[in-house]
From TrEMBL, chains A, B:
HAMAP family documented for this protein: CinA_B
All copies of domain MoaB/Mog, residue ranges: 4-170
Protein origin, superkingdom: Bacteria
Family note: Belongs to the CinA family.
Organism: Paenibacillus contaminans
Name the UniProt record assigns to this protein: Putative competence-damage inducible protein
Pfam families per UniProt: CinA, CinA_KH, MoCF_biosynth
Amino acid sequence: MKAEIIAVGTELLMGQIVNTNAQFLSQQCTAIGVGVYYQTVVGDNESRLRQALETARQRADVIICTGGLGPTQDDLTKDVLAAFLNRSLIVHQPSMDYMTEFFRGRGIAMVESNAKQALMLKGSDPLPNDTGLAVGVALTQDDTHYILLPGPPKEMKPMFERYGTGWLLGLMGGEQPLYSKMLKFAGIGESLLEHKLIDLIDKQTDPTIAPYAKEGEVTLRLTTRAGSLSEADAKMADTEREIRERLGEYLYADRDVPIEQVIVDRLIELGLSLSAAESCTGGMLSDMITSVPGSSEAYHGGLITYTNRLKHALLGIPMELLEGDGAPGAISERTAREMAERLLERTGTDFALSVTGVAGPSPSEGKPVGLVYIGFARRGGETVAIETKQTGNRELIKLKASKAALYLLWKQLHKHDEAAERS
Amino acid sequence: MKAEIIAVGTELLMGQIVNTNAQFLSQQCTAIGVGVYYQTVVGDNESRLRQALETARQRADVIICTGGLGPTQDDLTKDVLAAFLNRSLIVHQPSMDYMTEFFRGRGIAMVESNAKQALMLKGSDPLPNDTGLAVGVALTQDDTHYILLPGPPKEMKPMFERYGTGWLLGLMGGEQPLYSKMLKFAGIGESLLEHKLIDLIDKQTDPTIAPYAKEGEVTLRLTTRAGSLSEADAKMADTEREIRERLGEYLYADRDVPIEQVIVDRLIELGLSLSAAESCTGGMLSDMITSVPGSSEAYHGGLITYTNRLKHALLGIPMELLEGDGAPGAISERTAREMAERLLERTGTDFALSVTGVAGPSPSEGKPVGLVYIGFARRGGETVAIETKQTGNRELIKLKASKAALYLLWKQLHKHDEAAERS
């Protein structure tokens, strides 16, 4: 099946936002064996959107539109497709009921324009919106398949992953589906990882091996066509074993989860608690951990001590350690160690992480941008502190430093598991 | 003039990279008054690229292609356009001389395939490549203008900025460029904002008015054609005044900046300091604030008190307020107020923000997902606490609650400014 992705939105044509939706949908389609042949962007304009649909119909079997399902006047994707296919729009009652309840529960007046978010084309399959109000649409007419998705990535992505891909797979019938397995690595960069696997990557045929880096982590995707998941697993087993032998110490998961999720799950399993003291990451590390649903069972809280005064006032770090001639300074292994240990005392958790460094854009204490120390303290155990060097702009350094702290914790949890096995 | 941007590259269709080139070219075209009506992505495939050119010729005056000018077999944009326009390819001698010298200077053998990077269509204008080897091409045939640019952003961007825009401006003669102005709002949703401006939006002609929502904020874009920035400002003044009259209380900036940036700048200007105590936002609020470069001048740090025990141990909130029959509980206006006031004592900052609520996915203390209380305390001033209801999934609730806290602070800073003016 040949697919075309149409992103609808004048803000894309003005260059105000970058079309990450097309990238996401292309990745998802490729993964299930639907080839994307064109991506198109068109503005919030009735006649041009209609023309884009006409062009796409001539060259694609599947047309995936994203954007223009919202409540405002320039949201017109459903109207245009309905006219294009000569179908009427009908109310999707569950969406309407949910929306009515939604506004009532919040004590907000539901303005009439909102109602159009509950419309779908007559005879189409609704795609539920678990993270917003506009219902999605999937339908087939004259051998062409159409999918309409919302524009905001937070609504579009879960809708397509949970409902859109399944709908497409249902159409494909006989063709053997693609199976992918994700191996997730932390504590190693993309180029070093690729370097260590270059012979495997060069001779790859089946399964295929594709590394990519995203958000401070590296992912390796193995892909093969097979009749079933267990058949696919068997085809990928040798390659996976070889990769584990070479890079096992960095491999934290064999599914597409961020490291914070693996850590939170493991802490809950072990009944252990965690706190964090952050300087240069400024809250990002705690934000990552608390993005995991249920994290409150393991993560108790922490401190953000951005200034030396607060490192002293809130954590009790002696000022003579932070400032003055010959002092190690706030950005030092010693301070990272003290932060973790003193936080542990104050919070009473089993584990404590600490991060202190230079996020930039300017050096601090005469120390270079990207220098970051990470500390780890455990109740009744030894404290560990390491020096790391992170690259990129301020946001990337914060991100990579947060991930590095999580990787240090993951390794300690791993040791914990090994010790438990031995005893 | 109507433009279409065609990005050529199979890696875009596989979702391996995001199409930032289209965004850049759209911004550049918009800035010089060339409206982009379509963006297209097509793979490294002769017949489909030809078809994309055919489609574009029917609907655009200017066709800008990026990608496919390199030395490898996949690079076929020049060949395809030459065949499409029935022109031959000729050597651009200065590019060939530069390339020959380039390889000789590095002691590398120049493989024959490299030579094609010095080719241009007969009768076209060369666009010099100051940061790479492939020469660009600009030409007009049958009233359609074509520009071919390399794919790597570090070559494409300088080529288009230095030579491509000038070539296009030369074609336009009289037409005036577009000017845009962004108005940024917080504390109001997209539909309510549009509802309050619907009569203006309905009768819009010049300037045009377009609202869009992103990351918990709403942006309104005013756009007009004018001979200069000051002329554009004058044309937009009446509309802007009307919008300010209706929505001034939510309008925090007239340029495209996030609210945290406006707040950090203002705090630094006033020499005031800030700390934050977070529960349900779990560090996201502090992370947002510290994402602003230079924020350490105003933001001193804070606490993340995820559990009641830490609300008591780190902030000193009495346990009888948090738990037990008849207690207001952790998720209450009273606790938000206490968190802000007690944080202020502990950090000694001028202002303190607090957030406590239910991010979900499950209710807490029998209170519904999305219920969030925000507190604000100031040295020597009155404490404020408000109740808000946020919608969406866990991540969105954290995001919107963080933005709501920033909006409360922004309003307080505003009052501060007004009080200063009066005194």
